[in-house]
Write a structure and sequence with these properties.
The complex is a heterodimer. By secondary structure, chain A is mostly helical. In chain A, 77% of the residues lie in helices and 0% in strands. Classes of the chains: A mainly alpha, B alpha+beta.
């Protein structure tokens, strides 16, 4: 008689080993992150969180990330819809081009932006009009937009792709223009996907460092976003302020991740 | 009246080629064809979703080939309903009236009236996801009908439903058509739909209309081998036809079949299984064709038995189980296959 399954050790060595790997690594991650938050004494952490430099960094990060995220969403909707719906020559290449910033190190994207907005003819022209992008808060927005647009495009594209185009066809036979069908049917159906994309884009732009460093520089109290504050204070040995910036970034990441998970899970409903 | 003339459209792997159709007012017109024949593209082109590469579409004599879908007054119902999932059933049905900026009170009234006609008046506040397939399809039909379209396009509206619901909704489609007098173009690949609903039928194959006529014409006189196979003609064989004095002898290799046709040369013939008579002994009759063979298989198929007889060519006949028992037909025993000259349908190859 073959051995009964109940006769095997319970749980099986296979299951025990794999679960041990899972829980071991979870413990490792939690210890590392909580260790950072718990490292400074609480009063020192609170004092650092309330320091003018951190408050400035929070405000600058919130303002720039809000603007760049809004621009990303506005730009990504038509781009993602076109990639999802329309057939045109070069569609595959267009898709690849929109993915380049995903694969590119943000530092490289930052250097490219620096050249484009700095010494190039276009940069000189903007400068002559009084629009200085290089080493200004405006540069932060430009860098965040460039690096994060592909994330928004990807999420929005997959949101549009899951919607059967026949919803729009029916809406149009019922009296909608193309705009009307898009606004009244497609956008509401893509809503959860777009919210998920917005949250992940916002979270990424809050944390964007490399491209911002290159294009906007790291000037204290001028282009000092949270990641830049972390970097500046680490390099001057001011550990408490650096950790304060990290703690805020951790809270933002965890919160936005949970919102993203919530909306990207329910997206399959349609 | 819907008129389609010389319509051609290429879209990905699908093509429509030189489609010509006329559908009269209040007519129930069915387009029959296998999956991939281009039927859905034809409907979507009529609805204005796609612009044709060539040809014209007219509604009541007006050329609407370049008219926006919203201005065509053509209703569309898909196999998978396509009810807007973020709206209630009432909002779905009222969607078109809302686009026309109708008064909220009038919208409510019209929605209730059409929902009552389709028996979904009690479901108006539900969302589509909570409805059964049959209920969703009724809502989708109501959504199109409430605008009183000049033509209602139905794209396999019964295919996604279970057999019982399908039969019931088929009866309701007939009743709704009679009650509203709407012109209907209905796509299907089910033959039952044709006999239950259609005034006229067009058969589509590879993006072309290969035959148009009444259901009886299509069934009795299929115009091509494809139509015959598709409509259930099973004894299809190919050979050479020679006509003398109006009578044709068609040499199928193993046997020669006699019939009346003017078609000569390479042909295929089709004989419906229900028109094949089986007997244990040859008998005197007006039937022109009798062949001796051997019973190779007897299969129960629903309420009928299908008896296979090898006469050099494999014939299948449909009999009641009682007839099989009365004749004493047994596998391996000889039997005679008899059919009339008029039962032989001849198609050019």
């Amino acid at each position: 008689m073959p051995p009964n399954r109940d006769a095997l050790p319970h749980p099986t060595p296979f299951k025990a080993l794999f679960l041990a790997a899972l829980f071991g690594l979870i413990a490792y991650m939690v210890v590392v992150i909580v260790g950072l938050v718990a490292y400074p004494p609480l009063p020192a952490l609170l004092e650092s969180l309330a320091s003018p430099e951190i408050l400035f960094a929070v405000e600058l990060s919130l303002v720039t990330s809000a603007i760049s995220t809004a621009l990303c969403v506005t730009a990504a909707v038509p781009v993602a819809y076109s990639l999802a719906r329309f057939s045109f020559p070069g569609r595959r290449i267009a898709n690849t081009i929109f993915n380049i910033p995903l694969a590119l190190p943000p530092l490289v994207a930052g250097v490219a932006l620096l050249i484009f907005y700095g010494p190039s003819a276009f940069g000189q022209m903007l400068s002559a009009w009084g629009l200085d992008v290089v080493y200004t808060p405006l540069g932060i927005i430009v860098a965040q937009f460039f690096v994060n647009l592909p994330y928004m495009v990807r999420v929005a594209r997959s949101a549009f792709e899951t919607i059967n185009p026949r919803y729009e066809y029916v809406a149009r036979t019922l009296g909608c223009t193309e705009w009307g069908a898009f606004r009244q049917v497609t956008l509401p159906l893509a809503r959860n996907g777009l919210i998920a994309g917005l949250v992940i884009t916002w979270s990424k732009s809050i944390g964007e460092f490399g491209a911002v460093l290159m294009l906007a520089g790291a000037t204290q109290m001028k282009t000092e976003t949270l990641p830049i504050a972390l970097f500046l204070n680490m390099s001057t040995g001011d550990l408490d302020l650096a950790i304060a910036a990290s703690v805020i970034l951790i809270v933002i990441s965890v919160a936005s991740l949970s919102v993203f998970e919530r909306y990207s899970d329910t997206r399959e409903v349609f | 009246m819907l008129g389609i003339a010389g319509l051609s459209k290429r879209l990905g792997d699908f093509t429509l080629t030189d489609v010509n159709l006329t559908v009269a007012d209040a007519e129930y017109f069915i387009i029959l064809g296998p999956t991939g024949a281009g039927k859905t593209i034809l409907l979507e082109t009529i609805a204005g979703i796609y612009a044709p590469d060539a040809g014209t579409i007219t509604l009541d004599g007006l050329d609407v080939t370049a008219t926006d879908p919203k201005d065509r007054e053509v209703g569309m119902v898909y196999q998978d309903y396509m009810l807007f999932p973020h709206l209630t059933v009432a909002e779905n049905i009222g969607f078109g009236l809302l686009q026309r900026k109708a008064e909220p009170a009038r919208i409510r009234e019209s929605v209730q009236e059409i929902a009552g006609l389709l028996g979904i008046g009690h479901l108006l506040e539900r969302t589509p996801g909570t409805l059964s397939g049959g209920e969703q399809q009724r809502a989708a039909i109501a959504r199109a009908l409430v605008l009183r379209p000049r033509v209602l396009l139905l794209d396999e509206p019964l295919s996604a439903l279970d057999a019982v619901t399908r039969d019931r909704l088929r009866e309701e489609l007939k009743a709704v058509h009679r009650a509203t007098g709407t012109t209907v173009v209905h796509i299907t690949h089910h033959f039952e739909d044709v006999f239950a609903l259609a005034d006229r039928v067009a058969v589509m194959q590879d993006g072309r209309i290969v035959q148009t006529g009444t259901p009886d014409e299509i069934f009795r006189r299929p115009a091509t081998e494809f139509v015959a196979a598709f409509t259930g003609m099973e004894n299809v064989y190919c050979g050479v036809s020679r006509v003398r004095n109006g009578e044709a002898a068609i040499d199928l290799g193993e046997i020669v079949v006699r019939t009346v046709t003017a078609i000569e040369g390479d042909v295929c013939v089709g004989i419906r299984p229900e028109e094949v008579i089986l007997s244990r002994q040859p008998f005197e009759s007006s039937a022109a064709n009798t062949f001796r063979g051997t019973v190779t298989a007897i299969r129960q198929n629903g309420i009928f038995s299908r008896v296979f007889v090898d006469t050099g060519l494999p014939f299948v006949a449909v009999l009641t189980p009682q007839s099989v028992a009365r004749l004493g037909l047994v596998e391996g025993e000889p039997a005679y296959v008899t059919f009339k000259a008029s039962a032989v349908h001849v198609f050019k190859r």
